[in-house]
Design a protein that fits this description.
The chain is mainly alpha-helical. It folds into two domains: about 150 residues, UbiA prenyltransferase (Tetracycline Repressor, domain 2), CATH 1.10.357; about 140 residues. The chain contains 14 helices and no strands. The relative contact order is 0.11.
């Protein structure tokens, strides 16, 4: 049972918190909206598990050569492929069941998320740059499911910020993979992830710098935009910006100095600075918008 739980990767569910951004920033804090947001969150959690399992099955041969991924339940042989298929199917059905009561848009966006990730696992993860954009698209679909899926009009600035932030995290993951393979002494990157042969450290560093700067800039512009100020009746949301800046810089530090970046969720859980930064950001946003 422990191996099946590990295969579903529940520690990654924190990423699905993006579905709550629409409810949070739109001020829809009534119980029906919160309940629907929770259902969408659970739907993406279940579908994300199904996608992770499918990806592990598709990557079984390469994962067995990877210095870290070879310890995963499927790659290590602790869970059979047949059991993996069964769990993935069950989680996908559960995801659709959670999304169905919310409405057609939620179901549609969840299905698009699943299809895009299947295409990613089969082919698109081997296409340089596009691979990271596909990862970012998954996060954008979460945001859209938590806005359009709930009948909330999304802010353009917030969507841009979400895109840039997730691109930054995606390129940071690729940088972390290169660093880990260098430390492990593996010269042939294609043995573990074929697309890494098309990346170089300097290219990824440039992509990270651009996307990090754009994420900070677009969030700052969102907090002071006329639409945001008129909607909430305050311009104090700008005071949450330092937490975004600090969190971004802290993540870059963890990547280069602590060997983090391979697993964003675990990095957040294990670093007190990141936890306090996220808690501080959320507290400021709630106080200002309330």
């Amino acid at each position: 049972m422990n191996q099946l739980i590990a295969l579903a990767r529940p520690h990654q569910y924190i990423k699905n918190g993006f579905v709550f951004l629409g409810v949070l920033f739109a001020g829809h804090w009534d119980w029906p909206a919160l309940l629907n947001a929770l259902l969408v969150f659970l739907a993406f959690c279940a579908m994300a598990s199904a996608v992770y399992i499918f990806n592990d099955i598709a990557d079984l041969a390469s994962d067995q050569l990877h210095p870290v991924k070879r310890n995963r339940p499927l790659a290590s042989g602790a869970v059979s492929v047949r059991a993996g298929w069964g769990l993935a199917t069950g989680m996908a059905v559960l995801a659709m069941a959670f999304a169905a009561p919310v409405g057609g848009w939620a179901l549609f966006l969840l299905a698009v998320y699943a299809l895009i990730n299947i295409a990613y696992s089969i082919k698109l993860k081997h296409v340089v740059v596009l691979d990271v954009f596909i990862i970012a698209t998954g996060f954008m679909l979460r945001i859209l499911a938590g806005t359009i899926g709930l009948g909330i009009a999304p802010s353009s600035w917030l969507l841009l910020c979400g895109l840039m932030l997730t691109l930054f995290l995606g390129f940071a993951k690729r940088r972390a993979e290169l660093l880990m393979l260098e430390r492990a002494g593996l010269r042939d990157r294609a043995l573990t992830r074929r697309v890494l042969d098309d990346y170089t450290p300097i290219i990824i560093e440039q992509f990270m710098s651009i996307s990090a700067a754009c994420a900070i800039l677009t969030y700052g512009l969102y907090t002071v935009s006329e639409d945001t100020v008129s909607r909430h009746g305050t311009d104090n949301l700008i005071y949450s910006l330092p937490f975004v800046v600090y969190g971004t810089f802290r993540y870059i530090y963890l990547l280069h100095s602590k060997g983090k970046g391979n697993d964003t969720a675990r990095d957040v859980y294990s670093d007190p600075h990141m936890l306090l930064t996220m808690a501080g950001w959320l507290a400021i946003v709630v106080m200002v918008l309330a």
